[in-house]
Specification:
heterodimer, A: 483 residues, Uridine Diphospho-n-acetylenolpyruvylglucosamine Reductase, domain 2, Uridine Diphospho-n-acetylenolpyruvylglucosamine Reductase, domain 3, Alpha-Beta Plaits, 5 domains, five-stranded antiparallel sheet, B: 430 residues, alpha/beta, Fumarate Reductase Iron-sulfur Protein, Chain B, domain 2, 3 domains, five-stranded mixed sheet, 52% helix
Chain lengths: 483, 430
Amino acid sequence: MLDRAAHDALVAAVGSENVISDPVQLRSYECDGLTGFRQTPSLVVLPRSTEDVAQAVRACHRHWLPFVARGAGTGLSGGAMPVADGVVISLQRMREIVHIDPVDRRAVLQPGVTNLDITKAAAAHGLYYAPDPSSQQVCTIGGNVAENSGGAHCLKYGFTTNHVLSMTVVLPDGEVVTLGEDTDEQLGPDLRGVVIGSEGTLGIVCDITVRLLRVPETVRTLLAEFPSVTAAGDVVSDLVAAGIIPAAVEMMDNLAIQAAEKAVGAGYTLTTPAALVVELDGPASECEAQFDQVRTICERHGCTRLHIAETAAERAKIWKGRKAAFAAVGRISPDYIVQDGVVPRTRLAEVLSRIEDMGRDAGLRVANVFHAGDGNLHPLVLFDDDAGELERAEQLSTDIAELCVELGGSLSGEHGIGTDKACSMPRMFGEADLSTMDSVRAAFDLRRLCNPGKLLPTPRLCGEKPGRYRPHPLEEAGVIERL
Amino acid sequence: MTDSSFDATNPPSRELLNDCVHCGFCLPTCPTYQLWGEEMDSPRGRIYLMDLAERGEIELEGAFTEHIDACLGCMACVTSCPSGVQYDRLLEATRPQVERNVPRARSDRWFRNGIFALFPYRRRLRAAAIGGALYQKLRLPALAERVLPPRLRAAQALMPQVRLRSAFASLPRRVRAEGEPRRRVALLSGCVQDVFFHEVNTATQRVLAAEGCEVLTPRDQGCCGALGLHAGREPHARERAKQTIATFEKLPVDNIVVNVAGCGSSMKEYGHLLADDPEWTDRAEAFSAKVRDITELLAELEPRAERHRIDAKVAYHDACHLGHAQGIREQPRSVLRTVPGVDLVDLPDAEICCGSAGIYNMVNPEPAEELGERKARNVQAVSPDLLVTANPGCLLQLRRYLDNVPMLHPVQLLDASIQGRRPTEAPMTE
């Protein structure tokens, strides 16, 4: 519970109609898209302006209250999970598209605007916003900045950081600053770049200016099915070797195809072991020439079916199948964990066969959906909580992420570290790296109130599970006790 | 583990609750989430609260009931859910729990009871229509706008222009098919539809006849129970369902046709509603299998009657209980496209409810009003000559906010085309 003074300060900051304090209502904010970790916040505030956000953060700072910014709550690493006795600052009442400048191709957005709404608003001018996480219909630009989100098309177009020009940030002590410039050239140390992808640990991003791109003249999309995951993986390597940079190359294995097909009916063959979605965009002549090359490469690797989207609707359907795949896995398994890791492209086939072995050893199924073009894997570990498989599944999921590091890759491609993988960070970074990161964090947030416990491992907490109380291993051993 | 806060009669099932993976894809299409941006007024949040209640961690009274009441039941979330969560079933199981177990404040109870004492009864509605016509003649609405509390103000503002002649007119019991008969169907004439939108029913009969269907419209039919079902008044809904089945199952027809989206969706659910009643289960399923929305049926039949040209830009508004609840989106559009000259346009944010939602705009007037205004702005944005939608609730709701766009049921447009008159003119055979 918050003490009276802190509660009153927050109510004064945003107004009582923008505060949630009913214990039942607060429970709906316990978790984001990663439900394995839960924590009820003490209070939720829903500011309506940057000034409101600053006032709320100042109140937290003054009263030493930890706070967590929350967008649409779709994150898959527990980055928006509340902290104990803390405040959630929800940006869901700041959903205005402030300005679209079709000449300079920029948009100014409040943090709660959804990714897809930017593109919808820009479409009237023949423009669009390039990063497209699969959850783009719901995830917000504020959350995208916090996580440096990618998406299927980041292979060619880059991540959020390549598209954000400047932003207003409320620092953890409530100071409001603007980072970055509205031009492509960023002068001085790139503090904008430091904040993007910091998972809400360095402040709360409010107004965001993004770059808009012209809608490509031509888009060609094909769906190719293969007799094995290895064959599909080889196609990806050959595409890159041929100097083709597709807008997107996505791979799904059989389990993922079954799930997506059940949800969307996009026309994938249910029995096929692997499928690739390849999309090319750009000037028509270049697109056509490369498209022929792609077909040839697919055929060379024993493609069993090649389907070319003839209409925009068909193209949308193929993508809908791919983008709904995560959530659609709910149709083939009662519970699942979405993992996110990166391996060098050349080791795709290897990592997949190791994952298969690990799944077999653990007695669990693993479905794979991934951005094959940049080696970003999304293994989905399927399990049944009621059958007591949760812990085994969590272990397998962590092992897979750490396997990616072992193979020379990364713990996360785009979902972030959050709560989920903070404890795995030492697998990837040495002590010096982590302490440098911690110094950066301290420079922004000396009191460590801004999304504490996320991203960087906090030794005291590592191995301790948030959510329903479970004793820490050291507690069980009688080494420590809770006060 | 504590006991569930739900009682033992058909609580939301654990299996259905477990289907939700908390991905949030439902948030952008939820009308209340669009308005308020609060987690507990989103489908994901409501399912989360149902889940907690099922585990006995929260009570039904208080915040839980408030957020279940705030749901429009538009089912846009069912459409947008990639995991196939059956929110419709969850809500249908939860609302009766609230009605049974949570005492309502006296004024709320009276208001709700008042609605259910009036709407499902054609005779009472007709009596109300007399009062309504007088009320409108005396220009009382302008006064009411200033003095009534919000709920009553909303109820009076929703009252359509009452034409007593059509409110009291009755439909012919049997209309012969023109030319070679293709099907024999029975028509649900509805309660609100029959009194306030009588001309939709007559248009339905004419179009069906022109397309080679013999139409039987039994006089002894009553309310189908949809309003009650969607408001959690389960005993009322079950009683109405049984009466409706009993009335229609005697008729030797291929299909039971309905031109009200809300009624059609509940009539297709009878099998589920009466699943625990052995005497009725099979009969209910047989009944539900025959039910077709009018546009669904017309789309099944190759057009036969000649269509005359209507040059108009027509905006089609998907009624939630047609699009989201029954998945009927393509059929009305394809039926309207059979009319030469019709330029059919979709509305921006088409998946968001207009705020009508059964009795919602009477019991929750403020959010309903905001949603109505949003929908009206989206209609204005495409500047149509006509707005077409297949639900009287939507028509009543939108009429409040759009006085410059003529509104019709799709079947009325088709009727005008077949008759060769302008769609806004009165039909030739009333």
